[in-house]
Amino acid sequence: MSELPRGWATTKLDTVATLRGDKIQPNSAPQKPFIGLEDIEPHTSAILRIGKAWEVKSSVACFETGDVLYSRLRPYLNKVTCPTFSGVASAEILALIISKATEPEFIRRRIMTEEFLAFTAMLDKGDRPRVSWNEISNFAFPLPPLPEQRRIVAKIDSLTGKSRRARDHLDHIPRLVEKYKQAVLAAAFRGDLTREWRSSNRECEEAWNTYNLGQIADIGTGATPKRGQAIYYDGGTTPWITSGAVNSEIISSADEYITTEALHDTNCRVYPAGTLLIAMYGEGKTRGKVAELAIASATNQALAAILVYRDGPAEKRFILWHLRSQYFTLREQAAGGVQPNLNLSIIKRISINLPSRDEQTEIANRIEKAFAWIDRLAADATSARKLIDHLDQAVLAKAFRGELVPQDPNDEPASVLLDRIRAEREAAPKARRGRKKTA
After folding, report:
1. Best label site of 218, 270, 398, 433, fewest CB within 10 Å?
2. Cβ 333 vs Cβ 299: under 8 Å
3. What value, to the nearest 5°, has the Cα angle with vertex 99 and ends 93 and 102?
4. 180: closest CA among 402, 350, 375?
């Protein structure tokens, strides 16, 4: 934009803001509200938590109502907020005192733009980038008259309020996706998913029969060749899979390989592609997860390997989806003390109701079709979420070009405000600096 809108003037950040340099030891005001780096949500200005000063030991920065707090560590996280209370903050947070010529919320939004992020990115490119007030204070930008600043803030609030609500709704999609998938699986294995199909395929209709997994599949496990033995690992060509791999539904590669000697000296067994794996160990969400091998691999003892009999009553894809539907049930069946785990006995006793093989195939097809549709919706929601973020930045860019709200010729020009600020600063008494007397 080559020409500024009516009443606007170019200024620098240090003209409309000054750094509040007050720092105290937290034990001098232990009950003061405290804001740490992790308490400000990136890109949204939301304050996630308000602590107390006694929670920290090192010195803290003081701030007052109306200050703009800016995280100088990792500026790309865009952690900027404007609290409605006074308190103390991490020493990595700059507290900026905003002049009377400027609306604090206008400045907060101005330094959250992509333009300002690009400016800070050029200042420090280390692994833990950090900027200083002296560096960012040189940021130049066009400043509108004060009344227009307030109109801009109000308009941004109105528009971003709508996008925030949309973002909140979209953020619920992943949880709804998982619930819907579980509902699809539950309906499938109750027979509800293929009720109409059965009425149209009377020749395939059979009573559902109950089996234990051990009756319809060969179930085994693996071992861990002794660590530190080069003969078992160096130059190994056999993929070796551990429980962490089941976090991917299809396992097509391995992080480690073992040798022929390892296979000979341990209980490791190479399982063919198509083998189903259940994680028997693993804290967090790993235990009970199911994956399918896409490559022939050996496994460790934390995995149950399931080879569904080809000439048996079960169709492998049906078993795969049934086991995935049992994730929460399997986790509850884990045995042991401090770290409960599954074992082969529990796996072999898993009860499965089997319809005809034709209906099993139909059920697997319908599950996969439903999941593909759900995943497309989830992907669309993710794309929409990203578009909202871009839209917010577009709104800010439009606002700071003077295109979001109309200019009012009756507004006092920003240049007059800035001249008044300069005059007040020049007239203010300078702090006396002297040399300390030596004893």
Report:
1. 433
2. no
3. 100
4. 375
Cβ contact 227:286 at 8 Å:
no
C-alpha 168 chain-centroid distance: 14
Domains parsed from the chain with CATH numbers: 11-145+419-427 (3.90.220.20), 209-354 (3.90.220.20)
Report if pTM > 0.85.
Answer: no
For 321-348, the three-class secondary structure string (H helix, E strand, C coil) is: HHHHHCHHHHHHHCECCCCCECCHHHHH
> 418 φ, ψ to 5°?
-65, -40
Tokens at 281, concatenated: 């160990």
User: 10 Å Cβ neighbour count for 325?
Assistant: 18
Per DSSP, helices labelled H in 310-413 are 316-325, 327-333, 344-348, 357-399
**3-class state of residue 46 by DSSP:** coil
Cβ count within 10 A of residue 301: 18
Q: How far is CA 164 from the centre of its chain?
A: 17
Give the 3-state secondary structure of residue 146: helix
What b-and-e string marks burial along 327-337, b requiring 16 or more CB atoms within 10 Å of the CB?
beebeebbeee
Within 10 angstroms of residue 44's Cβ, the number of other Cβ atoms is 18
Give every CB contact of residue 282 below 8 A, 6+ residues apart in sequence.
Answer: 243, 244, 289, 302
CA distance 21 to 97: 10
Task: Please state whether beta strands 303-308 and 217-220 pair in parallel, antiparallel, or not at all (unpaired).
Answer: antiparallel
Interatomic CA distance for residues 437 and 439, integer angstroms: 6
Which residues share a beta bridge with 276? Answer: 292, 306
Residues recorded for the chain? 439
| Neighbour count for residue 339 (Cβ, 10 Å) | 10
Single-letter residue type at 117: L
Report which of 215, 72, 55 is spatially closest to residue 134, judged by C-alpha positions. 72
Give the mean pLDDT per block of 10 residues along the chain (439 residues). 84 94 92 96 92 94 96 94 96 94 93 92 79 95 95 91 83 87 93 88 79 96 93 95 92 95 93 96 84 96 95 96 92 76 94 94 95 92 84 88 92 91 78 48
What are the beta bridge partners of residue 142?
10
